[in-house]
Amino acid sequence: MLAKRIIPCLDVKDGTTVKGVNFVNFREAGDPVELGRKYSRDGADELVYLDITASHDGRKTFIDLVRRVAANISIPFTVGGGINQVEDVEKLLNAGADKISINSAAIKNPGLIDEIAARFGSQVCVVAIDAKLENGEWTCFLNGGRIPTGRHLLEWAHEAQERGAGEILFTSMNHDGVKTGFACESLLRLHETLSIPVIASGGAGELSHFYDVFSAGKADAALAASIFHFNEIGIKELKSYLREKNINVRI
Questions:
Q1: Which residue from 19, 35, 110, 178 has the highest number of Cβ atoms inside 10 Å of its Cβ?
Q2: How far apart (Å, rounded) are the C-alpha atoms in residues 241 and 235?
């Protein structure tokens, strides 16, 4: 069985790492390169960097930051935000990113997934899905949770897989920053629906939440932000806890 992955996520706004609650009310969390270096040293399996206002502001992703991150860390990292065409992907990979994450652009132009997978391989393409549970249905949102799409989580995730996505990064907007646990029931449904890895995001608040997301939610990786940024849980501490609970993680 593949080891479960622990992935700190760094939301970057105006060059600074920030963290919000339910996609709003952001507070600063530190320098993204320094944080990345720390997580690399502490045993994180991967990192995700998201330029969280790029799609909304119509900007391209932060190439210079990607170069600096690549020069300072020794683990794989994914970059997302403002990626609209294959040329954007090429620039980011050339700058040192290992994978790219697309969200809004993929829903607006699903064929972009096919293009990226065909040119660079599925392993490069992470399709991020921001979804909110409303009236019993998970609806996907665009532009950092600002615009509802009418697309449903499971059907869109399945289409993304069929088009060539290598992984699905599912963020529950209901759980984001609230620290009450991941959306395990919906993650389990994604696991049962898909044959590609699922990364869980939104809701991490204590050690037991990671055990739950791997055991009950069957997630392949768990992503978190504020608990790592503000030193509420250490990565080494978390991995030791999971190992004691018989969850296969790399120490």
A1: 19
A2: 10
